[in-house]
TrEMBL record:
Ranges for region Disordered: 1-24
A cellular component term, taken from the record's GO annotations: ubiquitin ligase complex
Domain DCUN1: 41-197
Matches recorded under Gene3D superfamilies: EF-hand
This protein's encoding gene: DCUN1D4
A Gene Ontology BP annotation from the UniProt entry: protein neddylation
Name of the molecule in the record: DCN1-like protein
GO function terms (MF aspect): cullin family protein binding; ubiquitin conjugating enzyme binding; ubiquitin-like protein binding
Length: 197
C-alpha cells in the first residue's frame, strides 16, 4: 500500500491555528497582567484600607489602632509597631494620620493587611542594622514623650544607648572622668554600691 500523502493545511487552517495560539498566549498574558495589577500597589486600595480603621476621620485613633493591630496579628506594645510608626513618620503614639499612612504605606508598598503582614519580618530586621536601630531609638524619644515635662532629655536618652553599647556589663571600662552625663555617673555609683552590699 502506498504511503498516504500528508494533507497540506489549507490557508484557513493555518490562520486558525495561529489565532488559537495567539488567543492562548493573550489569555496567559492577560491573566498575568491581572495578577500583577492585584499585586501592584494601589493608592485607592490603600486609602480604602485606611478608612477601615479611621472611620469618618482623617486619623486612625486608639480604637482603630487596636483593631489594626489585631488584624495584622501584632500586640500594640510589640517593638515592630514602633518600627512601623518610624516608617510612617508618625508624630503621636497611638495615632496615624491620613498623610502619614499614605506616605509610609506607599514607601512600604503595602495597601492591604496581608501585604503588611508579609512585611513585618522586614520591619523587625531593620532593628538588626545598627544605623537603623540608632535612628529608631532616637525617633522613639520624641514619639513616646506624651508631655512637655522631661524626666530625661534627648541627649541623655542618646547617651544611654551609647553607654549600653560601649560599657561592659561589669562596668569595668567605665571612665568616671569621661564625658558621660551625671545621670549615668549616678547610675554607675548606685550599681557599684549595690554590688558591694
Amino acid at each position: 500500500m502506498p504511503p498516504r500523502k500528508k494533507r497540506r493545511p489549507a490557508s484557513g487552517d493555518d490562520l486558525s491555528a495561529k489565532k488559537s495560539r495567539h488567543d492562548s498566549m493573550f489569555r496567559k498574558y492577560d491573566s498575568t497582567r491581572i495578577k500583577t495589577e492585584e499585586e501592584a500597589f494601589s493608592s485607592k486600595r490603600c486609602l480604602e484600607w485606611f478608612y477601615e480603621y479611621a472611620g469618618t476621620d482623617d486619623v486612625v485613633g486608639p480604637e482603630g489602632m487596636e483593631k489594626f493591630c489585631e488584624d495584622i496579628g501584632v500586640e500594640p506594645e510589640n517593638v515592630v509597631m514602633l518600627v512601623l510608626a518610624w516608617k510612617l513618620d508618625a508624630q503621636n503614639m497611638g495615632y496615624f494620620t491620613l498623610q502619614e499612612w499614605l506616605k509610609g504605606m506607599t514607601s512600604l508598598q503595602c495597601d492591604t493587611t496581608e501585604k503588611l503582614r508579609n512585611t513585618l519580618e522586614y520591619l523587625r530586621s531593620l532593628l538588626n542594622d545598627s544605623t537603623n536601630f540608632k535612628l529608631i531609638y532616637r525617633y522613639a524619644f520624641d514619639f513616646a514623650r506624651q508631655s512637655k515635662y522631661k524626666v530625661i532629655n534627648k541627649d541623655q536618652w542618646c547617651n544611654v544607648l551609647e553607654f549600653s553599647r560601649t560599657i561592659n556589663l561589669d562596668l569595668s571600662n567605665y571612665d568616671e572622668d569621661g564625658a558621660w552625663p551625671v545621670l549615668l555617673d549616678e547610675f554607675v555609683e548606685w550599681y557599684k554600691d549595690k554590688q558591694m552590699s
